[in-house]
Amino acid sequence: MTQPLGLSLFQRWCEACVDALGVAREEIDALNVYPVPDGDTGTNLFLTLEAAAAATRTATADADLDGVGRAFVDGALRGARGNSGVIMSQLLRACVRPTLAGRDADGRVAPGTFASAMAAAASAAYSAVGQPVEGTILTVARVAADAAGSAATAGGDLQAVATAAADAARLALARTPEQLDQLRRAGVVDAGGRGLCVVLDATVWVMTGRWSPDAQLTPAKPTPAQATRAQPTRGSQTTPRPAAAGALAASGPGYEVMFLLDAADDRIPALRSALADLGESLVVVGGDGLWNVHVHVDEVGAVLERALEAGRPYRISVTHFAEPAARQAGRSSATRAVVAVAAGPGLTCLFEQAGARVVPSMAGLHCSTGELLDAINSSGADEVVVLPNDAGSLVAAEAAAAQARDAGVRVSVIPTRVQVQGLAALAVHEPGRSFDDDVVAMTAAAGQTRHGAVTVAAGRAMTSAGPCEPGDVLGVIAGDFALVGSDLGEVAHEVVRRLLVGGGELLTLVTGKDAPSGLTEGIQQSVSGERPEVDTVVYEGGQWRYPLLVAVE
């Protein structure tokens, strides 16, 4: 790496890992057959990295890179979900800390330092698992670390070391069905190992700008025959599930228990030994007095008794593997709610007046999975429609929905990528319809809404409409930059004109907090003269970044 490892690069890596896992989340969920086929490994890994990245954003204001790095590993530890998420948190903790500590005076990381950190991470992950099993994320981590060490010994630079690790991880992942019988029978690779490959590929991308097409190198999805035998899971969605999954689920313990533990490090060996006798899939990770414990058992009380002997357990989570389906089957009537993301105070009022529960988003920040999940849960509804209203919040909305479905709530995420699509969807919401019919109607309304926006360039860039300079006015149509100009009013008029070329009966204008006075009046006057058949409504949205949002229905 020619550039030093600074705060901005580290944060870019954090966000790249979250984004990459968000894209791969559903694919990884579909691979999940070991240790329990509960179809949530991708979601758990995404939530773990999301918690880590969120911790860095909170710490950035008053911390240097070392402080942000500590916040990252602690965030991963505290936010780790599921078996693979807990193991991933240990891999990150054991790799990130020595990598940051090993920077030279110029902030650069030596190839050998990074390779050693990867080896330490793989070793720590094996040590954290009660009964290590080959053909899992552990194997992929070890093979990747070995390749990194060989590349460093051969004199490779940091990019070469990271690339060697990622390449070796994909090859190791492809071999996991040969090592684990459950994977071989299901015809899939290990879900946790696939998640680690995604993180390593994101690391290479941040270092080199190259993204490896790893999906082409691994049997990442069930075969067509297995997909035909798949069983429906998670509420209204269907996830490919191998036929062997039910048998595997029935043969294991009934409960997953997770908790954070404040305990002295010397109390952990005895705890680990006691829990190993009680259950399966034991993972204990952490250090310096803070630990994350995960285990599958039949006797939950016995686990908590051992935890109290070791220290102070908290944030205790107990999941009965068969409970969500049973709860769903027992529901006789349903209540319905809509959760919507709003980008400004005026939009918040609009969504609330239409009956939605609102999750506000701040300028430049997307909503987190936790915020959306809290809104879903606090609604108390059996059926929930989620309107992310932002492309960046869509992955978080899907992850929150997956978590809520595990608790027996029926959730559908309508892929609204802009605020005005959410307004259009909510306008046709009808709680008296069946859930499926309501979702179809809202989805159709959002999809049929042509949308545009006007914003101001913050820096120099190349857009689809040509180069722009700071302060230039950009016209956006259907999510793409279509105009570059100097006058906000002129660009806004042109955006509206282009959207109306395809016809329409209703024009919606939503002004942002930086909208100049008289902007919408001029547009209304122009439209009434040229297209008298079009009705125009104006709302004060108060959104950041966009002085004007436009929709045509």
Summarize the SSE layout with pairings:
Elements: H1 7-31, H2 41-59, H3 65-79, H4 82-101, H5 111-128, H6 137-153, H7 158-179, H8 181-186, H9 191-208, H10 224-228, H11 245-251, E1 255-262, H12 268-278, E2 280-287, E3 290-297, H13 300-310, E4 312-320, H14 323-329, E5 336-342, H15 345-353, E6 357-360, H16 369-379, E7 383-387, H17 391-406, E8 410-413, H18 419-427, H19 435-447, E9 450-456, E10 461-463, E11 466-468, E12 473-477, E13 480-485, H20 488-500, E14 506-511, H21 519-530, E15 535-540, E16 548-552
Parallel strand pairs: 5-6, 5-7, 7-8, 14-15
Antiparallel strand pairs: 1-3, 1-4, 2-3, 9-12, 9-16, 10-11, 12-13, 14-16
Briefly characterize the structure:
The chain is of the alpha/beta class and 553 residues long.
Describe the structure.
With 553 residues, the protein is of the alpha/beta class. It is built from 21 helices and 16 strands. The strands form 4 sheets. Strands 13-12-9-16-14-15 form a 6-stranded mixed beta sheet, with helices on both faces. Strands 2-3-1-4 form a 4-stranded antiparallel beta sheet, sandwiched between helices. A hairpin with a 2-residue loop joins strand 2 and strand 3. Helix 1 runs antiparallel to helix 2 and helix 4 runs antiparallel to helix 5. The longest helix is centred in the N-terminal third of the chain and has 25 residues. The radius of gyration is 25 Å and the shape is globular. About 8% of the residues have low confidence.
